[in-house]
Amino acid sequence: MDPILVLAQALNGLQFGIMLFLMAAGLTLVFGIMNLINLAHGSFYMVGAYVAAATFQATKSFLLAVIGGTGAGAAVGILVEVVVFRRLYARDHLDQVLATFGLILFFNEAVRMIWGSTALYATVPHFLAGQVDILPGVPYPAYRLAIIVVGLVVAALLYLVITHTRIGMLIRAGASNRVMAGALGVNVRLLYTLVFGLGAGLAALAGLMAGPIFTVESGMGEHVLILTFVVIVIGGIGSIRGAFVAALLVGFVDTMGRAFLRPLLATVMTASAADDAGPALASVLIYLLMATVLFVRPRGLFPPRTR
Amino acid sequence: MRWRNLSPRALATVAVLAGLAIVPPLALLTGATFYIDVFTRIMIFGIAALSLDLILGYGGMVSFGHAAYLGIGAYAVGILAFYGIHDGFLQFGTAILASALAALFIGFVSLRTSGVYFIMITLAFAQMIYFLSVSLNTYGGDNGLNIDRHSDFAGLLDLDHANTLYYLVFAILVFCLCLGRRLVDSRFGMVIRGARSNERRMSAIGFPVLRYKLTAFAIAGVMCGVAGALLANQQLFVAPAIMEWTRSGEILMMVILGGMGTLIGPIVGAVAFLALETVLADLTEHWQIIMGPILVLVVLFGRGGIFGLLSRWRFARHRG
Questions:
Q1: Is residue A61 part of a domain?
Q2: Given CB atoms, is B168 within the 8 Å cutoff of chain A?
Q3: I need a labelling partner for A216 at 20 to 30 A (CA). Which of A244, B3, B83, B93 fits?
Q4: pTM to 2 decimal places
Q5: Is the ipTM of this complex over 0.90?
Q6: Burial readout A122-135 (b: 16 or more C-beta within 10 A, e: otherwise)
Q7: Which residue range forms the structural domain that includes residue A24?
């Protein structure tokens, strides 16, 4: 196999994993602290992508698009938290799943009403349009490289905020014992809204970066949402560290599977059988990974210690 | 007969079944034969919702991948028909066997987990089956598979006839309802319900709880698989879209909307959900923007679903 191709695909896997992490970080925080399953997390991703694509078309400014998209995602997240989710924290998971399912229908249709049902065309800004040599003679798209860098920076910032700031301390306190944190005078309500906005903003950031790679269309959040759930379940729900490891793992396994499973199978079976089996196996690979992990460790790789 | 002494559940069951039984003659009388087809579909989803209620309402197992069995049942009919095998007994037998095996396997892995993990792993398995069906290029892949003939039950039933299909579905619905009632009232059902309120205590008494739960999970899967085989007959078409994850959400919603843990409630829920969908879709093409908030409101304020509402109302009247 061509080593340059393998390297490029490995980087693609890393880039996909980083995006999944941005999604998963918010989702796992919301679950860890508020004990809430939010299916509508993919909607923030979608809102981010749409607002950014529309802003970029209107203003031609990539910076404004990034700020607008992330801001819009965070704003929608905070709004939804205040209107709906506050009433859901005390409910069981079934109610949360169903209410947020209703929200997905609402957001998908709202986006369709505002921007139409045809996919939006998101462009890469011209300064990121080309290729860069990651090794001498090995070109790689600059835009994907930028996603990796941005994602790693955001992950590092998130780590710093959570481990070294006061707000991060409060978040950790909320995650390990909500009631006690409240009793010690933390404004839990405000903290919840803040964490929710942060998670929604991160999802929107992932969405706007994904825009030029995938298509910007209604329902784009759902596919990535289910992958994100796979990530946080493998990582252990509530654990940011677990989400990071699992996101990279899932991104890597999924990308490599799609790229190399078919040629790999072709070496042991006939070409036509490999054509059938390769994509089929590649698309279920991460679900198999998840089932295996849960079979061995029913609470994920890094289950949070306290609850 | 003293109607006032009947429990609201029995009364609702009789009323719902009587209502469903007279749909075809009513449709013929008014000339709106279109409704026979609509209600066939509604009853099929009623069976699916009822099967989910068995494990959700009584066993507390929140399966978020129930549509997978719908797909397995439908594809069993579709794939056999593709090879020219139209024998109904064989088709439905395959659907039952395939969904039983799938449910046993999925249940075996999933039931080791609980809570959110259970919700997510059942969803993941359903997605796996969904993507497998997408990659079945021989059977149409993403575009699906046309079925050229209805299942043939040794010439006994002519399913080309809308009425015959309707009453076949109706009979299976009644059968599933009776079976479900017998099950939840039996010793088996008591164990399942006991495990829902306190699994540890049930094991301490000496019940192999996991085995009981797995059996219930498989029964629900088979029931939903039969619904899938019926759905294939109703649409004469199968496609992966039949088991999209949103479909699992819709079936869950039907159970909640009607009232879970009642068996008849989910059937009412299926009627209400699909009727609402049809009415809203007639009203505007953007019907989901209304449907979404309705679902949120039902979850937030409609404790016990339609069925809970009815029994509360009856209770209040008795006291007044």
A1: yes
A2: no
A3: A244
A4: 0.88
A5: no
A6: bebbeebeeeeeee
A7: 8-217
